[in-house]
TrEMBL record:
This is Gcp-like domain-containing protein. Residues 1-23 are annotated as: Disordered. InterPro entries: ATPase_NBD (IPR043129), Gcp-like_dom (IPR000905). It comes from hydrothermal vent metagenome. Residues 78-178 form the Gcp-like domain. Pfam families: TsaD.
Length: 279
């Protein structure tokens, strides 16, 4: 379902902490919410790639098929990977909302949406495990949201389309998912190793994507930056916004906690080394 997002969705008034998304249409595969559901959304997928004013963080809101109401947002107090502020941030947010009378018992949570990658190996695992645990305890369902879809929702209005979101850069390659707009993923023929989370792209295969803009963090390989300059492809910084994760979650299927898994851009290094050592 990763490429089945509602076409023509638009932002409602209110901005990053008070707005929402109203899909003009949904397919059965892409529209996971039928009635307003209290949702906790977690965006900690790329903590080392986030810049000032951008994730990681969590938010709680009510998600329906035609409107999203954001109740509150709490950003993590440290972006360093070894400082785990995720669960404390969730507790701080819940306490604030409970004090304001906006929510009550934690078992009211219907859905836990997690930005599942591609991204940092540790950050993704922490987020997915936390999401699973919370869902198991509260009886909620889980929603896995590709991190590229989270980033795409905060694309600049003047960014040329189609544009790509490049994540999980390593050595000379990045994982790129292509969008026709902030809510619409484009499925293209394989220019270089296509997967459900995007294409593994290097400088010499970038042109085949046909993008006019690229959202990429500071880890984008220099060879790809040079190629973008040669092709006239504009590069913007990504915004990792937990509210964007909440918004995007309306388009994806709810699954049992056991089915929530990270999306890695390539085989994890630890797995590769283990296989090499032990066959």
């Amino acid at each position: 379902p990763w490429d089945r997002l509602p076409a023509g969705a638009h932002r409602l008034e209110g901005g990053p902490t008070g707005g929402g998304v109203k899909p003009d249409s949904c397919t059965p595969l892409s529209c996971g919410v039928k009635t307003a559901a209290l949702t906790l959304a977690i965006e900690v997928s790329n903590p080392s790639a986030a810049h000032e004013g951008s994730g990681p963080g969590v938010t709680v809101g009510r998600v329906g098929s035609d409107h999203i109401e954001v109740l509150g947002v709490e950003m993590l107090r440290s972006k360093r990977r070894h400082d785990d502020d995720l669960m404390p941030a969730i507790e701080r947010l819940w306490s604030q909302l409970a004090s304001a009378g906006l929510i009550g018992d934690k078992r009211e949570i219907d859905r836990v949406a997690v930005s599942v990658g591609p991204g940092g190996f540790t950050g993704l695992r922490v987020a997915v495990v936390a999401g699973k645990m919370i869902a198991e305890v509260t009886g909620a369902l889980c929603v896995g949201v590709p991190s590229a879809c989270v980033v795409a929702r905060r694309a600049g209005s003047d960014l040329p389309t189609p544009f790509g979101v490049a994540l999980a850069s390593k050595k000379e390659s990045s994982v790129v998912m292509v969008f026709d707009g902030p809510t619409q993923v484009v499925r293209l023929s394989e220019p270089g190793g296509a997967h459900e989370y995007g294409h593994v792209i290097e400088a010499d295969t970038l042109e085949a994507l046909g993008v006019r803009g690229l959202i990429a963090d500071r880890f984008l390989p220099e060879s790809m930056r040079t190629r973008c300059s040669e092709l006239g492809i504009r590069i913007d910084e990504p915004v990792f916004d937990p509210v964007a994760c909440l918004e995007a979650s309306a388009a994806f299927k709810e699954v049992a906690p056991i089915e929530l898994v990270p999306m890695y851009g390539r085989e994890p290094e630890a797995v590769r080394k283990w296989r090499e050592l032990h066959g």
